[in-house]
Amino acid sequence: MKTSNKLLIAFFLLIPLGLLIFNVLLKMQYVKGNLVYEEYSPEETTIPLKPFQHVVYEGRMVTDSLKVTTLWVGKSMHIHQGQDYKMKLLTRVAPFLRYEQRGDTLFIHYRNVKTKLFDKSTIFDYTPLNLYVPAIASVTAQYGEINIDRLEQAAPLTLHLRDLGATLDSVKTSLLQLHAGASRVKFTGNVTLDTLAYRVTGMSTLDFEKPVRIGTLSPEMMDSTVRIGIAGPAKELQGLIK
């Protein structure tokens, strides 16, 4: 047998032997308690806010500005019902957030930055901005995503959405006025609406997932590019429209 063949065989035999030795040593260290699992727990920043009724959100964070195009990533915002008005977000993302309260309206957007000026892992982290409100009258949002979680209020809610994805999860209100353009809107998780009035255009999609309860549908406008999806067992979907 040629020497080169012998060396090749020895090389392949050493690979599993090395892995076996490594695993044995690793287990010994684990038994001794030298290896401890550390759960990743990112630091958060809480920003208290004055009471407001309306939110205007732009979820586009521009990362590079070139002569021929603009590169950006979409950031998400989750709206939750809470006792106080406040925002929570990752501490490392906070320097890029810009917000301002004017009258009864909260404006939120992200500052534009060059790629070389920041850590890419921060910009491309999709952990959402969390906004807490006792109640809210309207949300105007463009780019990125918004998620409204477990919001229950008697007062009407108006959504103006453009170029984004939106999810309504366990939302209960007397009237939801939905104006959506080039957006995908998903209703899920015990959404209960006395009335849904909607104006939907620009290749938007409305997805309804059980259990969803809507008393009255009031279409104001819907062009031929809009798609509507209903998911769930047929028996359970009978209650979608009372």
Under CATH, the topology of the largest domain can be stated as Pectate Lyase C-like
Largest sheet report: 16 strands, mixed
* C-alpha geometry: elongated
Architecture (CATH level 2) name of the largest domain: 3 Solenoid
Separation, N- and C-terminal Cα atoms: 83 Å
Low-confidence residue ranges: none
Question: N-to-C SSE series?
Answer: HEEEEEEEEHEEEEEEEEEEH
Mean pLDDT rating: 84
Number of helical segments?
Answer: 3
- Share in β-strands: over 45%
Radius of gyration over alpha carbons?
A: 25 Å
CATH class of the largest domain: Mainly Beta
Helix content estimate: 10-25%
Q: What number of domains?
A: 2
Give the tally of β-strands.
18
What is the SS-derived class?
A: alpha/beta
List key phrases describing it.
two-stranded antiparallel sheet, Pectate Lyase C-like, 3 helices, 18 strands, 16-stranded mixed sheet, 242 residues, 50% strand, alpha/beta, elongated, 2 domains
Description:
The protein folds into two domains: 1-38; 44-237, Pectate Lyase C-like (3 Solenoid), CATH 2.160.20.120. With 242 residues, the protein is of the alpha/beta class. It has a 16-stranded mixed beta sheet that branches. A two-stranded antiparallel ribbon has the order 3-4. It is built from three helices and 18 strands. It has helices at 3-32, 120-123, 234-237; strands spanning 44-48, 54-58, 60-65, 70-74, 76-81, 86-90, 97-102, 105-110, 129-133, 138-142, 145-152, 157-162, 165-181, 184-188, 191-201, 205-209, 212-222, 227-231. Strand 3 (60-65) and strand 4 form a beta hairpin.
